[in-house]
Amino acid sequence: MPDYGRPLEFGVSTEPLADPPEHAAKIAKAADRSGLDLVGIQDHPYQRRFLDTWTLISTLVPVTENVRFFPDVANLPLRPPAMLAKAAASLDVISGGRVEVGLGAGAFWDAVVGMGGERRSPGEAVRSTEEAIDVMRLVWSGERSLHYDGDFYSLKGMRPGPSPAHGVGIWVGAYGPRMLGLIGRKADGWVPSLGFSPPGRLEDMHKRIDEGAAEAGRDPSEIKRVYNVSGNIGPDGDGLLEGPVGKWVETLSGFVLEGGMDSFIFWPGGDHARQTELFAREVVPAVREAVKGGRS
């Protein structure tokens, strides 16, 4: 399995908890203070205990300085892509270029329908996601009057703005073969979770992305590959990512050098703030060194 040689990035996930509402800010500040690159926030608007993800990110931007934020991943059936692109561009301007977009085709369909969204078949999910990527890129293109006529989304003379402060990445969270091919053809990145894409499946999933990239005339190494990984850093543990720093370093560096991934979003167990700081202080630098040595 290839190491695509991409730069490494590391981040943390924080739940958008309504109680206590200050939870996410505590984790975001810890990530920023510790020098992490990214904060990912899941987007499940139908969860009563969760705050709205985009609203929450808008409150985290002013209390941090360097860390970038992204929905991990935005719920497309409940967030029309033109409005999603507008929200992302607005926050990117406000933050000085610190917003990316994780995009999901949808899941938990009963809950989506309960909020007024449409239930989509797997094929419809792929086609609507492809259209959404097209629409979002068009909204960010700088053109003055936008027209788009798709099966799921349309624009009829939209006047977009503002433009993002930087080239916002679109990272798709997906696992099926057609969606992986779409990522290769059109997305800037892939953002799977370890639980749904275990190490034994990575080679085949990378292959499908790479085939899609080749079909579109793209270099597969252009595509960012961000792994959501959950676990606990501590003295012992039996799980893949349960145990001491050395175990984490060996596992994550292996995911890069042998598993084709280049970035990691840590979903911490236990004391989230302490785990975040431990990850940033002890795991991240050691993984960087191990990968540097493995690539030399």
UniProtKB/TrEMBL annotation:
Q: Where is the signal peptide?
A: none
Query: Is Nucleotidyltransferase there in the keyword field?
Result: no
**Name used for this protein in its record:** Luciferase-like domain-containing protein
- On whether Oxidoreductase is a keyword of this UniProt record, the answer is yes
Q: What is the lineage of its organism?
A: Bacteria, Bacillati, Actinomycetota, Rubrobacteria, Rubrobacterales
**UniProt domain Luciferase-like: residue ranges:** 19-229
Q: Keywords in UniProt for this one?
A: Oxidoreductase
For this UniProt entry, the molecular function terms from Gene Ontology, in alphabetical order, are: oxidoreductase activity, acting on paired donors, with incorporation or reduction of molecular oxygen
InterPro entries the record matches: F420-G6PD/mer, Luciferase-like_dom, Luciferase-like_sf
